[in-house]
Write a structure and sequence with these properties.
heterotrimer, A mainly alpha, B mainly alpha, C alpha+beta, A: mainly alpha, MetI-like fold, 15 helices, B: mainly alpha, 2 domains, 68% helix
């Protein structure tokens, strides 16, 4: 796939110095101007507070403030790394988040493709609306519901399994199953909401392409494969890349409401762990150190995928 | 789209409808359960008797909230927040997405800008520095404290940027030939041609503003300035039975935590649930590009 | 109805008398129940005449002074009409009586530990702008103390605290005030609260006991016999074996369906509500409760119970609220929990009107009586009020607190004024919550004792405050055999003169049979760093042992606990002990 010359360079030769070759070369300053307001706000409200991340390197005492707390180098990082649980929670977080990432990507795409095949407009809209509703439920409430429906003694899921001769499974209390419960319930809650993006992407595919495909004798399946999916590809790649940036966020609210001591082994994640450290005392230095670590990992993953896409496919994800 | 009516096709359509119906039912059943709980007596709810229909029907959880004047005041705050916040979000999203959707050779600084923005998705300073910034910029305890820190939703912007890039370049070239500048092109061409994408990010931005509660609690200095979801958070009845506080006996009689939390979902989410079906009409496929195909 | 009564109640009637006599020197009007409303002017003279000493604890600033503060409110606070937390009867009283104009820089709802109030306070502390008077939790107090941002209140306390204030703040020993001292300086005033409310009790369904002819348990064997009967003899009479012997919640510790009481029966004193518990080890040193050999014995028993099916197989995923379902739906008839249990599960009277529960003292596994563990010191939310260094009038805090206790227990306020500032008999709004300080030492126990005395005829209904009236009425309804709402039943089971939670608690208090946490200071540095890990290890090990892991894993846990910071913690705790 490696292309020796980028399309960009082929398509638009760099103009010779001082020569205005194309009439449509508009000045760039209005583009800068358009960005300016947002840029200023971002600098003030995002980059400004980012300077506060120095508390990751401090023995931070809120009463002394950011400016007067003593620096202690990497002590906060060392402290977290030295904790006996830290490897376990990072590992759990990665496994859970990656599974969620993959399944959470495939399901909404698949559902949007299926919805795309629906001709009856009211049915389509109805389904869209109904599957979007679970997004608005909170994990506090869902936690209680899941305990009921997954109960080995009288939960509906195990009742169904019994019909097929399967022994009851203690989903929420078993280290073998707990992560799958997290992934499936999370995808169930969010897929409808995430489908919206792909449905919007579908609308931007040029109908002419389908007509051309039909003329070439392509069936429905071929059309999906050769027109629809490539048409959605930019958005899919985009959402996948941005999801990579979340790979150390395995979903605090969900895990917090579903886990229990017996599944700490497989279910305890970075965020729940930091939360429990914080319960003893608001340890902002430690929490910020962990946050920085997570951000650094995200940045690495995102950059790698961005530059790979650019090098290999000459595609800028954003 | 052109279809052939083969047997296989019909089989697919049939199973597709069935599958989507099952999927919808799976999504709606827990919601029906929660709705039933919200209309059930606290005894029935706390004994786990409520399944998919209210037991001992009662409106007490809803009454408990609706009888408070703060509820309506907080709705006003939320409406103000959504109105201002959404306008700012959309304006900035469009204004940033347009330049960044240009090729590098048309807008040299685009990639640098893009990374400057994306970087803020990954790194943040945490609560304390943000609070200090909000305070020093003088917007503490005003609606702007809820609007400005998230003025540009980066994810939405990148989404829109990608949609903009998908628009046929020929149209833009033609517009420029006709002497249109960037502003005119953006407003007259890009925006009308991106309605599905704009509807999507409108939805995301609205839901975002509607549902966020933590910033309201931290940046507002008085409960009378809370938006709806912040307010609802403060009246979730934390029954702290370990504490000495047995003073709230009346409240204990009135509502149960479980039925109340269920009611809270519907009180808080109902208006926002109605936004989506409304926005759906912008998702009509093919309208946009069908009209401009060469 | 109500005549003269306090807004809040002192820890015991004994204390109340002491307080009354302490104040009586400041007050000409000394009749014991003093029904006659006093005029404000008489009050003014009274407090003026008291200022024969160096300062008047309730002296008025003239001209009035401005004092700034921030407020963290409970989510049960209510306002009617034009009143807000910025302008209400209490704030008006502050200005009228003390000449203090109290201004809130901000207020937030959510005073539970780790709640919004603490978070908002944290960001305010970090952003460096603090008002004159600040509400703090223990760690915030320590941070501000370390940073030298707080005013020394040692002298202010000595000089300005009224005798009554001093009496009440030290009513449960010096520990509460000690906890606010840093390097010998008093830097904050604690909001004293109840130690006894958390006492673990044994709750059993008495209608099932009656049905199966079971006696009140004396020993743990009796308790097991009751569990066995509840599991095997079909107490609910539905012909199905669908009941359990004991309720547990997934966090093991807590106030409902918890294990503390069970462990205490074996003279084991593990964590209390999740917080580390320290005991005297017999050689004058402090030791961590959860690693003692007695804990292992009790764990072995729980494992046995689980094996036998006495414990809900799925307790490990259920928090207390979820486990409560089994209790309210009549599947469980025994558990350990605090005095509030009947209120928590009052719905059972709706689902099964014949159901009845009662608190029993902890049975003992051997001949030695069991001692329930309780906290070392109990503080309200927020835990402390402190004054920042730059405040012009640090003594204003003391006066505000004096005024609170004067209104609560003193004699200078008329009935009418009382109702205005307390729980209103007309609109039911609990206006005492507007007060900046609300210490309430052992109020619930006092309510029980008062009701008991009224029943015995030594006190009269006129001694009941509007706040206690709800409990009192419910108990009376129960005694008169009237039709009871679930909440009436619950209150009778909590406060009643007999068959109530506080009857058992009172017995423990009188016999001095409680086992308070021996460590009463803020978290040590190792606790801050390690306790989250150690607690996880403990819960994981204990849960799994109960569900069938080898009991000897407990020994591994003890080793790990020591290695992973426990030994250091023990050293720090003992250093603290020696330093006192």
């Amino acid at each position: 796939m490696l292309k020796p010359i980028t399309e960009e360079k082929r398509g638009v030769p760099e103009p010779a110095a001082g020569v205005r070759t194309k009439p449509n070369r508009l000045p760039q300053w209005p583009l800068h101007l358009m960005i300016l307001p947002a840029l200023l706000l971002i600098i003030v409200y995002s980059y400004g507070p980012m300077l506060g991340s120095v508390i990751a390197f401090q023995d931070f005492n809120p009463a002394r403030g950011i400016f007067h707390s003593p620096f202690q180098g990497l002590e906060n990082f060392r402290y977290v790394m030295a904790l006996p649980d830290s490897m376990q929670v990072v590992w759990n977080t990665l496994i859970i988040a990656v599974m969620k990432l993959v399944v959470g990507l495939i399901v909404p795409i698949a559902v949007s493709l299926l919805l795309n095949e629906v001709r009856k407009e009211f049915f389509k809209r109805g389904v869209q609306t109904l599957i979007y509703l679970p997004h608005f439920l909170s994990w506090v409430i869902l936690g209680g519901i899941l305990i009921d429906i997954l109960s080995p003694s009288n939960g509906i899921v195990n009742d169904v399994l019994k019909l097929f001769g399967v022994d009851p499974i203690y989903f929420l209390g078993s280290n073998e199953w707990f992560r799958y419960v997290l992934v499936i319930s999370d995808v169930w809650k969010e897929f409808g909401f995430n489908t919206i993006v792909y449905l919007a992407a579908l609308t931007s595919i040029n109908p002419a392409l389908y007509e051309a495909a039909v003329i070439d004798g392509a069936g429905k399946w071929k059309q999906t494969l050769n027109v629809t999916l490539p048409g959605m590809a930019p958005i899919i790649i985009l959402t996948a890349t941005l999801a990579l940036g979340q790979v150390l966020n395995a979903g605090f609210d969900q895990v917090f409401n579903l886990y229990s001591p017996q599944v700490y082994e497989t279910g305890d994640i970075i965020d729940t762990f930091v939360y429990r450290i914080g319960m003893v005392d608001a340890q902002y230095g430690v929490a910020t150190a962990v946050g920085l670590f997570k951000s650094a990992v995200s940045l690495t993953l995102l950059s790698v995928s961005y530059f790979l896409a650019y090098r290999l496919a000459n595609y800028r994800i954003f | 789209m052109i279809e052939r009516n083969t047997v296989g096709r019909r089989l697919f359509i049939g199973s597709n409808y069935t599958f989507l119906t099952i999927l919808s039912v799976l999504c709606i059943l827990p919601l029906v359960h929660v709705l039933s709980v919200s209309f059930s007596s606290s005894a029935a709810a706390s004994a786990g008797y409520v399944k998919l229909w209210p037991v001992d029907f009662t409106l007490s959880s809803y009454k408990y909230v609706l009888m408070k004047k703060e509820f309506f005041r907080s709705i006003l705050v939320t409406l103000e927040r959504v109105a201002i916040g959404l306008s700012v979000n959309m304006a900035l999203t469009i204004l940033v997405a347009y330049p960044l959707s240009k090729e590098v050779n048309k807008f040299r600084a685009r990639t640098a800008y893009a990374w400057i923005f994306v970087f803020t998705m990954l790194f943040n300073g945490g609560l304390i520095p943000l609070y200090m910034t909000v305070k020093y910029t003088g917007v503490l305890d005003s609606i702007w404290a809820l609007v400005l820190p998230g003025a540009l939703p980066i994810f939405n912007m990148i989404l829109l940027l990608n949609f903009f890039r998908g628009l046929p370049k020929e149209l833009e070239e033609a517009a420029f030939m006709d002497g249109a500048g960037h502003w005119t092109t953006l407003w007259k061409m890009y925006v009308p041609l991106s309605l599905p994408a704009l509807a999507t990010i409108t939805l995301f931005a609205t839901v975002g503003h509607w549902n966020s509660w933590f910033d309201g609690l931290i940046f507002m200095n008085s409960p009378s300035h809370y938006p709806l979801q912040s307010y609802l958070q403060t009246i979730v009845i934390v029954k702290n039975f370990t504490a000495a506080n047995l003073n709230n006996l009346k409240m204990l009689q009135e509502v149960d935590e479980r039925t109340f939390k269920a009611a809270q979902i519907f009180l808080g989410a109902l208006p926002i649930l109605l936004v989506y079906p409304f926005l759906q009409r912008f998702f009509m496929k093919g309208i946009v590009l069908g009209s401009v195909k060469e | 109805m109500k005549k003269r009564a306090g807004i809040l109640f002192a820890s015991s009637m004994l204390l109340l008398t002491a307080v009354t006599s302490a104040c009586s020197s400041n007050n000409e009007n000394e009749s014991s129940s003093s029904n006659a409303p006093e005029s404000p002017s008489a009050t003014a003279t009274a407090s003026a005449s008291a200022s024969s000493g160096p300062v008047d604890p309730l002296g008025k600033y003239d001209p009035p002074i401005d004092v700034s503060t921030v407020r963290i409110l409970s989510n049960s606070v209510k306002f009617k009409g034009e009143e807000t937390i910025d302008n209400n009867v209490w704030y008006q009283e502050y200005e009228k009586k003390l000449g203090i104009k109290l201004k809130n820089e901000w207020s937030v709802v959510g005073d539970e530990p780790g709640g919004q109030g603490e978070q908002k306070m944290n960001v305010s502390i970090a952003s460096g702008s603090l008002p004159d008077i600040v509400p703090l939790n223990a760690s915030q107090l320590k941070q501000l103390a370390d940073a030298g941002k707080l005013a020394d209140l040692t002298e202010v306390y000595e000089k300005y605290a009224s005798p009554m204030t001093k009496q009440i703040l030290t009513s449960s020993g010096p520990t509460a005030l000690e906890s606010a001292k840093f390097d010998g300086k008093l830097l904050a005033i604690p909001a004293v609260n109840s130690v006894y409310n958390g006492t673990p009790l044994l709750w059993i369904r008495t209608d099932w006991m009656k049905k199966l002819n079971l006696e009140a348990p004396k020993t743990m064997d009796d308790v097991y016999a009751i569990m066995d009967a509840f599991v095997n003899q079909d107490p609910d009479g539905n012909g199905k074996k669908d009941t359990y012997g004991i309720a547990l919640n997934k966090d093991l510790y807590g106030f409902f369906g918890a294990v503390e009481g069970f462990f205490n029966s074996y003279h084991a004193y593990p964590r209390f509500g999740g917080t580390g518990n320290w005991i005297e080890d017999g050689s004058g040193n402090l030791a961590f409760g959860s690693i003692q050999p007695e804990v292992k014995t009790a764990l072995g028993k729980l494992q046995e119970l689980y094996k036998k099916g006495y414990i809900d197989r799925e307790f490990g995923v259920k928090d207390w609220a979820k486990e409560k379902e089994l209790i309210v739906s009549g599947k469980i008839g025994l558990f350990y929990g605090a005095m509030s249990a009947p209120i928590v599960m009052n719905e059972i009277k709706t689902t099964d009107p014949n159901a009845d529960w009662k608190a029993f003292p902890l049975a003992s596994a051997d001949g030695q009586p069991a001692k329930p563990e309780v906290v070392g010191i109990a503080l309200g939310n927020p835990q402390y009020l402190a004054v920042t260094k730059n405040a012009k009038n640090p003594e204003a805090l003391m006066k505000l607190i004096n005024l609170f206790f004067e209104i609560s227990y003193g004699k200078s306020y008329s009935q009418e004024e009382h109702d205005k500032l307390g729980t209103s008999p007309t609109d039911g709004v609990e206006r005492w919550m507007y007060s900046i300080y609300t210490g309430e030492p052992e109020k619930n126990l006092a309510t029980h004792r008062l009701i008991k005395e009224i029943v015995a005829g030594t006190k009269s209904e006129s001694d009941v405050s509007s706040e206690q009236m709800g409990a009192y009425r419910s108990v009376m309804k129960a005694r008169n055999g009237e039709k009871l709402e679930p909440i009436d039943w619950a209150l009778d089971r909590v406060f009643g003169p007999e068959n109530s939670a506080f009857q058992v608690v009172d017995q423990y208090v009188n016999d001095n049979m409680l086992q308070p946490n021996a460590y009463t200071s803020v978290s040590t540095s190792t606790m801050l760093k390690r306790d989250a890990t150690l607690q996880k290890l403990e819960l994981e090990t204990f849960s799994k042992i109960i569900m069938g892991d080898p009991l000897d894993n407990f020994d591994k846990f003890v080793d790990n606990w020591k290695k992973l910071g426990g030994d250091e913690m023990t050293k720090e705790v003992n250093e603290w002990k020696k330093s006192r």
